[in-house]
UniProtKB/TrEMBL annotation, chain A:
High-level lineage: Eukaryota, Metazoa, Chordata, Craniata, Vertebrata
The gene coding this protein: rcl1
Function recorded in the entry: As part of the small subunit (SSU) processome, it plays a role in 40S-ribosomal-subunit biogenesis in the early pre-rRNA processing steps at sites A0, A1 and A2 that are required for proper maturation of the 18S RNA. Activates BMS1 by promoting GDP/GTP exchange. Does not have cyclase activity.
Database matches in PROSITE patterns: RTC
Protein name: RNA 3'-terminal phosphate cyclase-like protein
Main localisation: nucleus
A GO-annotated cellular component: nucleolus
Alphabetical list of CDD domains matching this protein: RNA_Cyclase_Class_I
Keywords: Nucleus, Ribosome biogenesis
Organism: Echeneis naucrates (Live sharksucker)
Oligomer status and interactors: Part of the small subunit (SSU) processome, composed of more than 70 proteins and the RNA chaperone small nucleolar RNA (snoRNA) U3. Interacts with BMS1.
Domain RNA 3'-terminal phosphate cyclase: start-end pairs: 15-346
Length: 379, 142
């Protein structure tokens, strides 16, 4: 229950329900505070943790050392006492109920604060409808983290094999160096969009599908910009996973190095109505326009990653301009307050009427807590 | 019976605040509950009827809901603004149109935006023209 949440003396936090499980476990690991999550689908016909959540917890166990994890018999209660973030080389078969993005998002948040640089090989579904795909995280989350001083040669996300839902069979390798401190940032001016890049992928279907996607997406986006290049990626044989499908990831890059993204995948084989590649391309392009309308220096998917790195930054002011906060981000802010006692200053910025720059923006300001990576080994 | 119905409605409305244990597993009890249990001796075993159990959890749930509501209302209005009031005055999108987040909702960071914008309309396309290098530039940036 929430009664302990605002108690600063308390070293542990109690929550209800399976929603936001990753946020809670990630922030618990970073803050060292234990969490207890009760009533996990306790009213469901199938109560308790799902396989993908158990798989996520196993991954967390692999990258930490000395974590204590207890789950009751029905799986409706989870107790997590975080250990030290150890890192190193990790291999994990991600449960295919969720895509690799689900697991990777948490690793992106944890990897810079480990004892040893992380080299994680994750296997499973690389692209699906639910979670951010590995392509999207590669082209938006990594450049964002670079702005906070997390960079270098060893910082990479490589898509070795693709695998669509439901079968999976994809593989990615994520490598990340460790940092002692995080640099504060001032990202208040997104700048104008100079180019749009994208990847249209097709697996175990005709390579023509990707070309059809590209054509329809370009038709929408060329109304704004000539500099558009969408790569077509048709993987074959063992590199194409176990299920057929296709999809598109689009990224708009601004003059100041901000990235706004949108993506769409075909519906998994045997689930729901099939999608035409032309419709997918067009709708994905419109999703990108919606994301540009929302605007800011960080796109909707990465809002919480930006806010976490601001929170953990050196004791200086960080400012980031965001589009309207997503419900997931709002919950993340609540969790940041619970685990780190940090509150953000939130100012709404309305664009001037004579400018055609989309909707209202939100300027987020905070002073970092000066988080120091005590796990990092001295060399 | 009526009370139970009311209670079940309340549960649905406040799943996030619910305190209800399905079994008597050690892990499912907070420290306080464990203490209570010790004081009550062996009463907690199969001896007592299910009605008593319901009553007990009724009371607990009511206390918890009241406590949680009090903590929301009584939160100090700091300069940063309380996070609980964020939803009411910030440009926040609620595709699911529900203020209270469902405790067992899908845990997903991907944001599916409001579909009220029709990107086939020239008016909408025009609303973002200046976000691109091909749009109008401010004088100081030109």
């Amino acid at each position: 229950l929430c009664r302990n949440n605002n108690n600063m003396a308390s070293q542990g936090l109690d929550y209800d329900g399976c929603n936001l499980l990753r946020q809670r476990l990630v922030l618990s690991t970073l803050s060292g505070k234990r969490v207890k999550i009760k009533n996990i689908r306790s009213k469901d016909d199938e109560p308790g943790l799902r396989d993908f959540e158990a798989s996520f917890i196993r991954l967390l166990d692999k990258v930490t050392n000395g974590s204590r994890i207890e789950i009751n018999q029905t799986g409706t209660v989870l107790f997590y006492q975080p250990g030290l973030l150890y890192g190193g080389t990790v291999e994990h078969d991600c449960n295919t109920q969720r895509s690799i993005g689900y697991y990777l998002e948490a690793l992106l948040m944890l990897a810079p604060f480990m004892k040893n640089s992380l080299k994680a090989t994750l296997r499973g579904v690389t692209n699906d409808l639910v979670d951010p795909t590995v392509d999207l995280l590669k082209s938006t989350a990594l450049p964002l983290m670079k702005k906070f001083g997390i960079d270098g040669e060893g910082f990479d996300l490589k898509v070795v094999k693709r695998g669509m839902a439901p079968g999976g069979g994809g593989e990615v390798v994520f490598t990340c160096p460790v940092r002692r401190t995080i640099r504060p940032v001032q990202l208040t001016e997104p700048g104008k969009i100079k180019r749009i890049r994208g990847v249209a992928y097709s697996l175990r279907v005709s390579p023509q599908m990707a070309n059809r996607i590209v054509e329809s997406a370009r038709a929408v986006l060329n109304q704004f910009l000539p500099d558009i290049y969408i790569y077509t990626d048709h993987m074959k044989g063992a590199n194409s996973g176990k299920s057929p499908g296709f999809g598109l990831t689009l990224v708009a890059e601004t003059l100041n190095g901000s990235f706004l993204s949108a993506e769409m995948s075909s519906t998994p084989q045997g689930q729901g109505d099939p999608v035409l590649p032309e419709d997918l391309g067009r709708n994905c392009a419109k999703l990108l326009l919606e994301e540009i309308y929302r605007g800011g220096c960080v796109d909707s998917t990465n809002q919480s990653l930006a806010l976490l790195l601001m929170t953990l930054g050196q004791q200086d002011v960080s400012k980031v301009l965001l589009g309207p906060l997503s419900p997931y981000t709002i919950e993340f802010l609540r969790h940041i307050r619970d685990f780190f006692q940090i509150m953000f200053k939130i100012e709404v910025q309305k664009p001037p009427e004579d400018e055609r720059k989309g909707g209202d923006k939100v300027l987020m300001t905070c002073v970092g807590i000066g988080y120091s990576n005590i796990n990092k080994s001295l060399k | 019976k009526q009370k139970l119905d009311e209670q079940s409605e309340e549960w649905e409305m406040s799943t996030e605040l619910l305190a209800f244990a399905d079994s008597e597993d050690d892990l499912e009890m907070s420290e306080e509950e464990k203490d209570k249990k010790k004081e009550a001796g062996r009463e907690g075993d199969s001896g007592h009827s299910s009605v008593e159990e319901e009553d007990q959890s009724d009371d607990e749930a009511e206390e918890d809901v009241a406590a949680a509501e009090a903590s929301v209302e009584g939160e100090p209005a700091s300069g940063c603004g309380s996070m609980n009031t964020v939803c009411t005055f910030l440009p926040v999108d609620h595709p699911q149109k529900k203020k209270r987040v469902i405790a067992n909702y899908v845990d997903c960071s991907r944001f599916n935006p409001d579909t009220s914008h029709n990107w086939d309309l020239e008016e909408m396309l025009s609303s973002i023209r200046d976000c691109f290098v091909t749009g109008k530039w401010e004088e100081d940036q030109d």
